[in-house]
Amino acid sequence: MRSVKLRNISYSLIALAALTGIIFFISARADLNAGDISALYFWTKLSSLIASFGALILIVLRIFKRIDRDRNFIYVFFGTANILLGLCGVSFYFLRKINIIGLHDLLPNLLIGIVIFADLFLFDALFRRSPPDCR
Description:
Layout: H1 2-30, H2 39-63, H3 73-94, H4 100-121, H5 123-126
């Protein structure tokens, strides 16, 4: 099962890289006549909201066992997207590209992504059902 999870993560990274490239292209063209708000900020905020709400819905579906964590690409995609958004927020904060408010906007994404990845990789190890002791 680990190979399916890793394949889904790699496909998610490829899709997110393509999406990021498209967003950078759109933002660069929109910043030529920028008004009060940067197009890149708008896309980051929109991506953050979509990724967090989508992941929260999938976590609820996962709790009620409506989706399978091992083979569901969308679950892995939203987890990867949230991890990347959170890590970008932390790195941009330390590089002084965003302020503390921007960091606070993206930290919930990191938490949601960590919860999904913990479910993907640590759930079986933490909640392993050991066979009854036959002594």
